[in-house]
Design a protein that fits this description.
alpha/beta, seven-stranded mixed beta sheet, 29% helix, globular
Amino acid sequence: MTFDSILSNLPNPAGSNIAVRVTPAAERALRKGHPWCYESAITHQSREGIPGELAVIFDSKRSFLAVGLYDPTSMIRVRILQHWKSAQINTDWFAERLEKASQLRSPLANTPPERRTTGYRLVHGENDGLPGLVIDRYADTLVIKLYTPAWIPHLAAVCTALSEIHPAERLILRLSRSLQNQPALLYGLHDGFVLSGPELDGPILFQENGLFFESDPIQGQKTGFFLDQRENRARVETLAAGKSVLNVFAYTGGFSVYAARGGASQVISVDLSKPACDAALRNMDHNRQNPAVATAVHKTIAEDAFVVMGQMKAENALFDLVIIDPPMFAQNQTQITAAISAYRRLTQMGLSLLRPGGILVQASCSSRVDAETFFNTIHQAARQTGRSLQEIERTGHALDHPISYPEGAYLKCLFAKAP
């Protein structure tokens, strides 16, 4: 079934809006520009609605406060599109919002040939004023990922606006796990649906800072690659000359390839996924034309990172640079304590494999563990091993992953030397 044929089945978002009143606390948050209105904050609404209908939120004086996408399936009942000033939400509105996001990324779109970058995030959800919607670029392919069924009725308008602002050869749809579990709301769409352009016959090859990487936007994690670590990968490159490098939770070897181009003598990539390790080998091969990459010794280990690090410790293995970039440990409030414990354990295991004077690079993508807690955890864990870290740098989000509200901050990374 084609996207054009599915379009006729999608619900029409036009019609009367849902009028909503909220608590004083929610009203204050919305006045400050917060992108969410929770179910618990709603004190009155004019009627029930379906995903994707527009909900207009009024303040205590019955004046316009915000308008957003209504989603009765989520605790985030309204995802705000426009604050303070009323607007007609249509293709032109989406085009204006997409153009603003595109302008923010113009430095990435205009990199010099030696640092050419054709893979980056075009739209970062709430932080670009399009809550629950992510758009990533991989060369001439764009990947739209939806986190709420409220976007389904507006998908055609978004695609039309996107074709005007950022035309592409191919457009692919990805759906969050929760959305995949709501097939009745998808109207024939599915995860990995090719909305326009030719079907994929293999991974997409794109460039990042002049290096080549492959992305599988249909089967890969997120939309096929961890684009948010681009700047941290570039920092690793500047630290890798002549070093032996251990890259833990390597996925498809992004940090490994940068380390190799930076002059690393040896790189070991560890990831539980065998397909990810195979992709890491191919990514290294994609860049063998670079003399430094060609001479670096690269090995992959497709096993559990904790087990591998334990085995390496027992064998007295040591490295000059240890990179630890684990998946999100805390997906909800109840997992925070376990996540902090995991970060502590990883720090101590990483330091046990790090030569005196070596460099530890440790990252977190768990938004529920704030930056200060994360950095303090690393330092406390290091002191417990008898090694006080000397910080080189703390980093956060790159320009294509902007942050506009507190809960949107998730990425943090520490670069530190361990005497």
